[in-house]
Amino acid sequence: QVQLIETGGGLVRAGESLTLSCRAVGDVRSISDMGWYRQSLGNRRDLVAVNDQYGLKRYADAVKDRFTLSGDKQSRIMYLQMNSLEQEDTGVYYCNVKARMSSFQAVDVWGKGTQVTVSA
User: What is the pLDDT of residues 14-69, one digit of tens each?
Assistant: First the structure.
């Protein structure tokens, strides 16, 4: 099984920064995608940033110039550096990993989520 350990959420003021981390723990053969999604109240869970199966880092347009994804899939750890936070960035941030456990088993795993609240 794979577990995702997320840290780094909290309450900040607009304009400040936060860094989220996600570590994948378990007997994983390989990770294809590793990234972060966000769900704000009443809305669906949307992509924030991902290191995809091609090794490309993709960002939502709303965060492209402010958020940076780092870390690497081989090490099974990913960081999301969030700068110039805005109230619209408020939400629960979920780490997501798509991985192979074996030649026959692929998994799509979600973390429990970490709350980010940005005040005025």
Answer: 999 999 999 999 988 999 999 999 999 889 999 999 999 999 999 999 999 999 99
Beta carbons of 67 and 10 less than 8 angstroms apart: no
Query: Taking the CA of residue 55 as centre, how many other CA atoms within 13 Å lie in the half-sphere pointing to its CB?
Result: 1
Q: Provide the token pair at 11.
A: 């309450």
Give the integer Cα–Cα distance in Å for 14 and 83. Answer: 10
> Which residues, 6+ apart, have CB-to-CB distance to 76 below 8 Å?
23, 24, 25, 28, 31, 34
